[in-house]
Amino acid sequence: MTLRISTSKERVLPRIAPRHSTTTFRQGISMEDFTLVQLDYFCVVADAGSMTAAAAKLSVAQSTLSSAITSLERRFGAELLRRIPRRGVEPTPAGLRLLSSARRLLDDAAGLSSVIQGEASEIAGRIRIAVYSPLAPIYAPRIVASLEAQHPGLEVTIVEGDNHQLWSILLQGHAEFALCYDVALGEGWDIEFLRDVPPHVIVPENHPLARAPQRRIRLHELIDEPAVLLDMPTALHHYLGYFRALGLEPRIRHTAQNYETVRAYVAAGLGYSVLNHRYEARSPGASSVVPLALADRLAPARLCIVRPSGPVDSRRSTACRSLVRTIVAGADAVVG
User: Fold this and answer.
1) Is 280 exposed, middle or buried (0-12, 13-18, 19+ CB in 10 A)?
2) Residue 14 confidence (pLDDT) above 90
3) Angle of CA points 144, 149, 152, to nearest 5°
4) Which range of residues forms the domain containing residue 111?
5) Do 104 and 155 share a domain, yes or no?
6) Does residue 37 share a domain with residue 148?
7) Same domain, 114 and 172
8) Where are the beta strands (DSSP E) in 81-224?
């Protein structure tokens, strides 16, 4: 017998235990005390951060979701979602623990029929991947397109943010892993290093240094010119660190919150910038910028996959991380 969960991409999940039998957890909670549908509803609400958004995604009434969450809270004896006025909901500490386990349970349940029949089960369901905002234009489209092409039953959502937002997203269970730099990482993370990304300079195409784009330059050659720096949490400190490692202090003329604005300022002749990743995308109507390699010996940024330590991996997460690894390894054409 199967139990159907109505989502934007429907998946079929086997019932955990038939109604005529009873399976009991060690802590004394019967598996008849909750359903996979309730767990799936809880995961969708936690990811959406809103009953309204989750109801629209699942095509069910908000009252149905509210009833499912209330039933889970009553059966587990703990508040799972905290209601925040005018903002929605967020998982409590108990909710975060359930979220991690529920995703693995739903993932395993979705593949039970294939396991029983001795087939290789399809990677399906939903996964949310966090990506550091400046990296998103470079990697997010490739990640989504490749994952959905290889795993048609997979629904991929990319969540962007700065470093502080990414850590919060991961700790609250709103994404399974993040693609980011290893900047400002503390304890409690599993970190897989993917590649080193050295810094480079960008100048407008009419800059004198742009006439010899193959020549490696030194930062002191630009130190008297106005600088345009990325100013996101931890980013400004990171880029200032390159100057200060050489005993230099830049003349900061402009700061911006994203790569494209930095590039647009530079393209308009308003200064130069130091960045890590390079790519060829142009802002609408903007002139090109010219990337220049640095001869200075400066520590590269380290691109990595990060996830909270502790939780056992799901097959879905493992498969997605493997493909992200492959995409990053093949990105030499756009990475500086």
Assistant:
1) exposed
2) no
3) 100
4) 1-121
5) no
6) no
7) no
8) 81-84, 88-91, 125-132, 154-161, 177-181, 189-197, 200-204
Instruction: Out of 121, 156, 179, pick the residue that ends a domain.
Output: 121
Least confident of 161-175, 216-230, 239-253: 161-175
Which of 121, 149, 164 is the endpoint of a domain?
121
HSE on the CB side for 186, CA within 13 Å?
A: 5
Q: What percent of the chain has pLDDT over 90?
A: 42
At 273, which helix (H) or strand (E)?
strand 273-275
For residues 6-14, give the mean pLDDT: 39
Tokens of 258: 């994203």
Q: What is the pTM of this model?
A: 0.71
Looking at the structure of the chain, the number of domains it has is 3
Which CATH number characterizes residue 242's domain?
3.40.190.10
* Residue pair 197/301 in contact by the 8 Å Cβ criterion: yes
Determine, yes or no, domain membership for 264: yes
Determine the distance from the C-alpha atom of residue 264 to the mean position of all C-alpha atoms in its chain, rounded to a whole number: 25
172: left (phi over 0), alpha (psi -120 to 50) or beta: alpha
Residues 149 and 178 in one domain: yes
pLDDT for residue 224: 96
Q: How far apart are CA 175 and CA 156, in angstroms?
A: 11
* Angle, alpha carbons 280-281-283 (nearest 5°): 135
Among 82, 78, 109, 91, which residue's Cα sits nearest to residue 43?
Answer: 91
CA-CA-CA-CA torsion sign (79, 77, 36, 321): positive
